[in-house]
Design goal:
alpha+beta, 36% helix, binds glycine, disordered N terminus, 20 helices
Length: 562
């Protein structure tokens, strides 16, 4: 095994200074937006053309995604917006993650025998955290934007009020969630026709949502978190078995968090801090890989090492990560190259490490959401936003309080529903992420910037626990091979998350020879059976000036440069 540890600090220090000077002062020739919905990408462009900056455009894109892609995110959910302000280089993550209501308890989803009640944390109003998305939009607009919310929310309001044609994905997803969504009349009335999904191209009109968005535009935070909308949200959830109160809504606050920063082979990685696990895991995995001369290695060895780095990074997730306002997350340790060196020392070049032989085995409690959405924005001043938004599983909880148009998330399932279960080593997993009133549930959402002397990338994706490995693979392709946004989004994917101890892969990600070689090293391979993820990326190469905005070819999104 190569041990390149002594090089790590040299590489890190020189790179961080170079990257900082390359980015400062640069202005792109074009603005760029990539999102999972063409209408949302166009909405962002409309706002840039109306004189808005990237932060105004981010409001427009995220609010519009909530209208046109209601299975992934929305006003009833939350998200993270990673910001870079060009004129002073300031970076921050705006944390609009949902929080547990005040009446939430650690064991609220367990039966009298202490076992999880099936689907209680997933379906209906008890599954919903207090939304953070609307507060996030207000925060972005008032603190960083240039335009009033009445302008930046206008495209979303228009599309909710006048309707938009149901896409192939929309119809397919509505068919998939038909049983859940038809349990409660308000959502069923909006999205179904006599209980059946609309045909492709049929208009989906959301008048209640248009009204709620208009109140938010007119009254700011009070338009959602107090007054008529708040009353309807609370009455609706409580009548259907939920536990929200007016005070839960009135006391919701956005948080500003310092991003996680790391360095790998000439690139500075800026990513999502806790309550996301994403940035910590990405930087830790790259720190592990920094000790290998990866680009010079044959494909099987590269993939073996990336899998081993994923295994080790994901191992720590359940043990250490949670809402930093409630638990002490040992950031310095997890992000330190010496910590990664210790993890790397256990990697064998010729053999997979069985997950249950890693020290301190914990029961892994993963965020399982397969939906969520991501968008990337770069304006002509060089301001940028990577935004990842979620209502968790497809259409969240499926519950819409009557008269609001607000489809509620089921983000409560991202908590450890049953923490503290001892494993064979008497260690417990998930305590850091146990449920508590007012606490944010751990997330995998990973909006990320990659900055080097040569250029810039903004990337992120939905995909639950696989978000982090997708962003890692995209980052490696960019850093090792200079991949453009178009190449990053199309990249075949593979994933390991410590437990289950298996490599999940898209068919094209591992050819027959690599599969055989990995299996002979002891890796258990499981074809994912379908393609996954929906990565949205922007790249900007300083030498050529080329800007590329690209949407994942696996889905319906759109990247535009203008
Ligand atoms: N709900 C998906 C995540 O936050 O990771």
């Amino acid at each position: 095994m190569k041990n390149l540890l002594p090089g790590i600090f040299v590489v890190s220090v020189s790179i961080s200074m170079a990257a900082a000077s390359a980015v400062a002062g640069e202005r792109p020739q074009k603005a760029a937006i990539a999102s999972a919905s063409p209408l949302a990408t166009e909405a962002g462009m409309e706002i840039l053309e109306a004189g808005g900056n990237a932060f105004d455009a981010a409001v427009a894109v995220s609010a519009t995604l909530g209208v046109t892609e209601p299975y992934g995110s929305g006003i009833g959910g939350g998200g993270f917006w990673l910001l870079h302000r060009a004129h002073d280089g300031f970076k921050v993550m705006v944390d609009g993650r949902e929080v547990a209501p005040a009446a939430a308890t650690r064991d609220m989803y367990l039966d009298e025998d202490g076992e999880p009640v099936p689907r209680l944390s997933v379906d209906g109003p008890l599954a919903a955290g207090i939304p953070g998305a609307p507060a996030g939009w207000v925060h972005l607009a008032t603190k960083y934007g240039r335009l009033p919310l009445s302008v930046s929310l206008a495209p979303a309001i228009r599309l909710a009020r006048d309707g938009f044609p149901a896409t192939h994905h929309m119809v397919r997803n509505l068919a998939y969630k038909k049983e859940l969504m038809n349990r409660w009349p308000a959502a069923a009335e909006v999205f179904y026709r006599d209980g059946e999904p609309p045909r492709e191209g049929e208009l989906i009109v959301q008048p209640d949502l248009a009204r709620t968005l208009t109140l938010l535009a007119e009254q700011g935070i009070d338009g959602f978190y107090r007054g008529d909308v708040a009353r309807k949200l609370v009455e609706g959830t409580r009548a259907a078995g939920g536990i929200w109160t007016l005070d839960d809504l009135a006391s919701y606050r956005v948080k500003e968090r310092e991003p996680v920063v790391g360095h790998y082979r000439g690139t500075r990685i800026v990513s999502a801090p806790p309550p996301s696990s994403g940035g910590v895991l990405i930087v830790n995995a790259l720190n592990i890989l920094a000790g290998f001369e990866l680009p010079a290695m044959k494909e099987t060895t590269q993939k073996h090492l990336v899998i081993e780095a994923m295994r080790r990074a994901y191992r720590d997730r359940a043990e250490f990560l949670g809402d930093p306002d409630f638990v002490d997350v040992p950031m310095d340790r997890l992000l330190h190259p010496f910590y990664a060196a210790g993890q790397r020392a256990g990697i064998r070049m010729d053999k997979a490490t069985p997950s249950d032989t890693l020290p301190g085995v914990v029961r892994q409690v993963m965020a399982g959401g397969t939906q969520t959405t991501h968008f990337s924005v770069l304006d002509r001043e060089g301001n940028r936003v990577g935004g990842t938004m979620s209502i968790n599983f497809w259409f969240g909880s499926g519950f819409m309080p009557p008269g609001t148009g607000v489809l509620l998330n089921n983000e409560m399932d991202d908590f450890s529903v049953k923490p503290g279960v001892p494993n064979g080593y008497e260690l417990v997993g998930g305590d850091a992420n146990e449920i508590a009133p007012g606490k944010r549930m751990l997330s995998s959402m990973t909006p990320t910037f990659l900055e080097s002397e040569d250029g810039l990338a903004i990337l992120g994706t939905p995909g639950g626990s696989r978000i982090i490995s997708m962003v890692l693979l995209g980052s490696l392709a960019r850093i090792h091979d200079g991949a453009s946004a178009t190449e990053m989004v199309a990249l075949p994917r593979y994933h390991h998350q410590y437990l289950p101890d298996a490599v999940f892969f898209e068919e094209q990600a591992l050819d027959g020879e690599v599969r055989g070689a990995l299996e002979s090293m002891g890796h258990v391979l499981r074809a994912s059976g379908r393609n996954y993820g929906n990565l949205q990326a922007i790249t900007w190469d300083y030498e050529t000036g080329r800007i590329d905005a690209a949407a994942d070819p696996r889905a319906e999104g759109l990247g535009l440069e203008r």
